[in-house]
UniProtKB/TrEMBL annotation:
Localization annotation: Membrane
UniProt keyword annotation of Hydrolase present: no
Transmembrane segments: 21-52, 102-122, 134-159, 171-193, 199-222, 266-286, 306-323, 335-353, 359-384, 453-473
Name of this protein: Transmembrane protein 180-like
Key words of the record: Membrane, Transmembrane, Transmembrane helix
Species in which this protein is naturally found: Betta splendens
Cellular component terms per the entry's GO annotation: membrane
Amino acid sequence: MPVEETPASAMRFGRMNLMRYLIYFGVNPAALAYAMTTLGSAMINNIFSFYYVKLFLNTYKISEGAFHQSQVVYMVWNAVNDPLFGYLQDNSRVPCCSQRRLSILYGAPFYSLAFLLAWFPWRSYSPDDWLCGLHLVVALCAFDGMLTFVLLAQCALFAEISSHHQNRLRLIKYSQVASLIGSSSVLFCGVVSKNMENFSAFQAFTVLIAVISCLCMCYTGIHSESRFDNKGSESDLVSVDQTPQSAFSFSMLKTLMWQILTNRDFQLFVLMNFFQVFMLAFFNNFTMIFTEHLIPPDVLPSLAKSIMYGAGFICPQLLVLSCQSLLRGLGYYKIILFTFYVEGGMAVIMLLLGPQHYYFLAFFLTINMVIIQAAFSLFGLPLADIIDTDLQQYKRSSPLSSMVFGTNALFTKPGQSLAPMMVLNILNQFGYEKLKDAGNISNPSTLESIHSVMFYLVCLVPLCVATMQILAWRPFSIRNSHTVDAKYIES
């Protein structure tokens, strides 16, 4: 008698056929499945980070006090959710949390819905409306919470799919291609909405992007696998206590956190990464504002500015893809260090040239966005090496991938809030809050003052941050992982 085909067996058969087709065309199925979450998240993350500050400041007219309060709440939430989600994903026995692909599969719809919260006002806001401040708090916390849950699982997959440097470079290659495609959402969003001038078109575009993003991440949730998915749910305790863990334990969380935090390479990486996150937020949130004020419309029309913004999100992936051979030959350590010297050197040149060189200023802003994002795209490599070191040092049965990434985020994500808070506070001291609408400026000296402050921020912030990053990154000791074989046996 023929065996009745079940939905599960039919799905397995379909997945096998899909993998055969992908292999036939030279596509690595594991890398493709991993990269689909990068594609989906890049579509919505870049739009969110690039537009939300301008939306709430210039369109919703949020007060400075409410903006700062929302950023403080956001920082606190960031400090709580990353290590807790990391601990949950590494120690939970519930499949939707413990299995990386299921975390992505079930989290993707909520992640995409959270992305949409910011773009639809809860009512017609008046200037300094209290509800606008609440709206920003909810939008930031919901979006970051789901981003953390989904992308922690993907970061863990990066470390767990393979321990070989070459295989990890393949994941980065596929991920950068996906990010390249996903980052074009900023370009198309700017063109479709005329840089948010047509707000209805902007809202419609965000809904479309949210749907596409969700489908992409669900592909990862169906087709991706970690090497540790089938190793059981035994707890990963330190050698001093091998008893099974039956429930959430703050003492265990404290022990594991301490083991991670006492790793000197982790400390150096976190310090360097904090400044990188700060710089990413600085340019993502304020490039559009700086460009509109410092570069006249007759020099760069709206379409040219849209292309400039899009290039800032698309070119980083092209740069990383073109540096694959350098990553194999030199390793990530030297390349990341080199980017810091480039950032600092360009800031000095821009400072010496002055604000009247508009085309070079546009080039400087774009190149900074490109270099900072490109270097940030490589940060999974040192974190994966830190995870490997931790796995060996404490002889764990499976790595604490999510906890390492989550603990890193605990200290670095506050940079996402500190950057807009600090910059906005400086700008408002020179009258920016009264000058949001350039057409209503009656005092030319005030406008000149705010433009001068913006220019010095554009130059001095990258210079100072690059200096701090060089000092933090130079002592990092894991420099030659690209020259050694796998650090543990894959099974």
